[in-house]
Design brief:
mainly alpha; 67 residues; single chain; membrane; 2 helices; transmembrane
Length: 67
């Protein structure tokens, strides 16, 4: 059960990270986060952590199936 929770957290964190990165980079405008370098960096970190969680959970699932 814990594995799917980490997968969902990874997907959500990755999507939020992508949104924050685009807002911080000024691609998405209309908020206080738009064009702010701080949110660009926070978004990048969240995106990388989210991708790492998804990849690690995908590898665990693949390892379980082949073994």
């Amino acid at each position: 059960m814990k594995r799917w929770v980490l997968l969902v957290v990874g997907v959500v964190l990755g999507l939020l990270g992508l949104l924050w990165t685009l807002q911080g980079g000024g691609v998405i405008t209309g908020s206080g986060m738009s064009g702010q370098r701080q949110w660009f960096l926070i978004g990048l970190i969240a995106l990388v952590v989210g991708i790492a969680l998804v990849v690690s959970q995908a590898r665990r699932r693949a390892g379980r199936r082949s073994g």
